[in-house]
User: What shape does this take?
Amino acid sequence: MSEKMSFTFQDIIWCNLKRKPLRSFCLIFLVAALAFVLFGSSLITRSLIKGTDGLAKRLGADLLIVPRGYAQTAEGILLRGSPSAFYMEPEWLEKISGVEGVTAVSPHLFIASLNSDCCSVPIQLIGFDQDTDFIVAPWIKTSVPGILKDNEIVVGGAVAGRVGDTLQFFGRGYSIAAKMEYTGSGFDASVFMNMDAARIAARDCASKMGADAPPEKSISSIMALIDDSSTPIGVAGRINSAFGYVKSGIAVVPAQNIISSVSVSLRMLTGSFGALSAVLWIASFSILALLFSAMLNERRQEFGILRSVGISRKKLIAMVLWESGLISCIGSVVGIFLSALLLMPFRIYIREIFNMPYMMPGFGQLCAIACISVLLSVAAALLASLLSSVKIGNADAYRVIREGGL
Amino acid sequence: MILEASGIKKEYIRAGNSFWALNDVSLSVDEGEFICIVGRSGSGKTTLLNILAGLLTPTSGSVYFEGREYSGLSDCELSGMRSTRLGYIMQGQTVLPNFTVLQNTLIPHVLADRGDAAEAAMSLLEQVGLAHLAGQYPSSLSGGELRRVSIARALLSSPVLLIADEPTGDLDEETAGEIMRIFTSVSKKGTAVLMVTHDMNSAAFGTRSYRMASGQLL
Assistant: This one.
């Protein structure tokens, strides 16, 4: 005899699910969709919050000085790695370093690459001065290279390629000398090279684009650190009064201003995601309640038979809750798995969509988000089935049998 | 005395008018008896069986099963009684489609948490001639075979009372005869059988018969 001999209460539950695959699939699909959105929206929200938290620390500077009219563009480069290029005179380095309260300055030169073989999106090339740098070195995760040669680069955490690999920009090969940690900022999609190499790349870029080459020795921005007794706004005011707010042709942006603009967007997004999740939970709960109600009504004959052979009200309710619990567990795990599968590899694209710093939470926090999503999804399904199962369980056994058509 | 029902009344309200489905019915069942109740549709037979099986509460009157009065028992106790001491074969098709023949037979045992009874179930299926179909699903069984599964299921816990509502209602004469022979054999082994039918040929197998009309046992 091939028939499995032992048969338990759990087998009854399992058989009920297995023998009605379409019904089970529909319920699993619905719970999976709920878990997908709950986990996805929570993960994106947490990643945006983590990306924004400590953004100032990751930017590494107190002030950003750029040509007037390019403050927003520079923010785009620093926050999102949106490729762009603009120039200012190198003399500003000395002028800014002489302002009271400024303790260190370091120049950057921005060059927007065309599509490169390393990346599916254009890359921001940044020239930096290793002698004065306080931005790039702290984020290098492999050993800090010595002086970068003209054909050597340091790449952001999201740029494909390992140390020793060669990347091509404007027809020249550059060897990766070091790779940075993932920072959640625009640096992740940036490639750093020394100033001389960056100027050569800027000329290559201009020639490829058919544009004028940038002025000799030009720079794009100055990152400045200030002393503990000064405030970024105070030092920015001193710079403006020393060189003239309009006349100077430069814009001084305190790092916290960048963060506060991001924070406003983040609050709006977090609120939107929260509202979306709440609406979706209520909608899913309502649909599940309707589905369970219809399905349990359809199963009245089955429940009537079970009542006649000795299932108690409590056990009948437990059976239905076990079924919906099992379905919701499977559904929520599937939904979370698919959500993670979609969101985790595409964090760069997600950052581009939201135009904000984006940094995945750690493993512990990921697990916590997954657990909360499972709990909320399972709770929705259990509550939805509880209403109908209690109604049927509490009905007189004879009524269940009669209404079941027996 | 296994079962004693006295002064059972059941009132229903239909379209605003009340009527008595059962009107002062009394009945007692002893060990090994095979009692048949015949009557037309709507005479109150099924209502009586549901009250005797503890599935329906009477408007008045009392039912004692093995000395315990139903009104004093909880739902759990009544359910436990149905899965262990009282086998109930309802009218119509009552085999669950999601389970195999063997699993259907085992369900009351599983619900009563009484451990592994697969061998006993196979032995019962053997007795009703269905052992070879133990692994089959109900969709592949005939009406007579399905009815025999219901009987095997009701007998698995060795009940002291087997209640059957129209067990031969939709069966041909030969299959109905087989079912009656099973009931006769069961009652001879000590299990009381209380059967409702409108088939006089089946009723002839009983050791005691009643006629039911207008909610009264005659």
User: Anything to note?
Assistant: Chain A has 13 helices and nine strands.
